[in-house]
Amino acid sequence: MAGQHLPVPRLEGVSREQFMQHLYPQVMDNLLIQVTGKKRVVLFSPRDAQYLYLKGTKSEVLNIDNPDLAKYPLFSKARRYECSLEAGDVLFIPALWFHNVISEEFGVGVNIFWKHLPSECYDKTDTYGNKDPTAASRAAQILDRALKTLAELPEEYRDFYARRMVLHIQDKAYSKNSE
């Protein structure tokens, strides 16, 4: 089975009614298998990340059903996909898709994660797809150093060069494919 990655099962958890997780992505594809109980799952495309008010890997918007639009006005631009899971249902959650899981009643769910990128792309200590790929982590560290360097400039210059960097990143790294 060279080049293939075996799935890693994880008990999603025994969850009480109205338990809700943060809105966050995982770096591995996964199947959410609802064994007992009911859950509501809300998904957002990775392309909507700019509207989700990310702090680290999680959204600052905690109540996605009734967000504070005065505080998070762009959140309304994010397109949500929603489904309900009951015992026996299985949901495929693609890698990088933001998801929020709300338990509507006591239940048990199981996640099965699998790596679809070459194994060297993943943090070797990350069993469940919670850590960024190693190249993304290195890039974030380099960006942090670049921002620290820009902080040495007066505000007007810092703003100009930061905007230039953003345009450069958009030109070189953003996908040219649209949904």
Automatic annotation (TrEMBL):
<dbReference type="Pfam" id="PF13621">
    <property type="entry name" value="Cupin_8"/>
</dbReference>
<feature type="domain" description="JmjC">
    <location>
        <begin position="1"/>
        <end position="131"/>
    </location>
</feature>
<dbReference type="InterPro" id="IPR041667">
    <property type="entry name" value="Cupin_8"/>
</dbReference>
<dbReference type="InterPro" id="IPR003347">
    <property type="entry name" value="JmjC_dom"/>
</dbReference>
<protein>
    <submittedName>
        <fullName>TYW5 isoform 5</fullName>
    </submittedName>
</protein>
